[in-house]
Design goal:
- The chain has 238 residues and is α/β, with parallel strands linked by helices.
- The chain contains 9 helices and 7 strands, in the order H-H-E-H-H-E-H-H-E-E-H-E-H-E-H-E.
- The protein has one domain: Rossmann fold, CATH 3.40.50.
- The strands form 2 sheets. A 5-stranded parallel sheet has the order 1-7-6-2-3, with helices on both faces.
- Helix 9 links the parallel strand 6 and strand 7.
- Helix 3 crosses helix 4 and helix 4 packs parallel to helix 6.
- It starts with 5 loop residues before the first helix and ends with a strand.
Length: 238
């Protein structure tokens, strides 16, 4: 809850709660107004997702049925990346609102097909490089992953599995080929976790998937550690 006690309630009267996307005043204890929640619902309903890569085939055709080379089984995304999603991600990635990432995961976990979680042993998140983590203070993908684990039954969150060995440039403005080389070999599994992971089926979670270069490298690191099935989940697909 954002204003659970009397002090927070009084502050709410002085500083009205506003929607994090459109800044309209809120009358309930939520992050988003009804209009923005409806936009998310329409976004999700408008997706014809490829069962392998998660691309919305109403927006862009994929060729996965003819050519699939990812090290993970499939990728699933809740939404297409749009202005509403961009505002939400900006707040929990750069605005310090880590609870928002958790709540988005917990609230919308049920929108993923139930079979996504069947047979899977644990959920983990794409890690940040150590210095980027120190600068931000948290990993937004981790909070989103923890929210997903809280929103489904039977698949818990397993922390501190993957380690980012080196700093990589942000993927945002890189071409597909540069994204691939940028993160190549950048991840490994903590040595103390390899025995625990052997034969386990793991879900990797990230906030946004574009080319899936990052999650693919994470999947390779998990497979090198002896994991079985790997699936990828994200809040949105760009």
């Amino acid at each position: 809850m954002r204003f659970p006690g009397p002090i927070e309630t009084a502050l709410g009267l002085l500083y009205p709660r506003i929607c994090i996307v459109c800044q309209n005043n809120l009358t309930t204890d939520t992050w988003l107004c009804g209009s923005c929640i409806e936009k998310l619902a329409l976004n999700h309903a408008g997706r014809d997702a490829c069962p392998l890569c998660g691309q919305n085939r109403r927006v862009r055709r994929c060729t996965c049925e003819y050519h699939w080379q990812q090290p993970f089984e499939a990728a699933y995304s809740l939404f297409d990346f749009d202005d509403t999603i961009q505002s939400i991600v900006h707040e929990f990635k750069y605005g310090g609102i880590k609870r928002l990432a958790f709540d988005m995961g917990k609230t919308y976990a049920g929108l993923f097909p139930s079979q996504v979680f069947e047979g899977m042993d644990a959920i983990t998140a794409v890690p940040l490089f150590f210095f980027r983590f120190l600068k931000r203070g948290y990993n937004q993908a981790e909070y989103f992953a923890k929210g997903l684990a809280a929103g489904v039954n039977g698949v818990g969150y397993l922390p501190d599995i993957l380690f980012r060995k080196r700093h990589t440039k942000t993927q945002t403005k890189l071409s597909r080929s540069r994204r691939l080389t940028n993160v190549a070999g950048a991840f490994t599994v903590f040595p103390g976790k390899k025995k625990l992971l052997r034969g386990k089926n793991i879900i990797i979670v990230d906030d946004i998937i574009t080319t899936a270069a990052t999650t693919a490298e994470c999947a390779r690191a998990l497979m090198d550690a002896g994991c079985g099935k790997i699936r990828v989940l994200s809040l949105a697909r760009d």
